[in-house]
Specification:
The protein is mainly α. The chain is built from four helices and two strands.
Length: 79
Amino acid sequence: MSDHDTLADIAESVGMNRDESMAILRDSSKYANEVRSDEATAKQLGITGAPFFVIDRKYAISGAQPTEVFINALKQASQ
């Protein structure tokens, strides 16, 4: 997970620009403020572990769950 070439290859495989991805990986502080903001939001929401999913800031799914759990949460959020 820490090999920049591998991560850039993965980024490229899902349609991201490889050179931009590599530049971001080399400048590890580029998105530091955004990450800290996300961490603060997670703390405010009481999130203490991963995976954790929040839908519409109302519905929370903690841990690995069956597909049906996500489908039900998305249906509730859309109503």
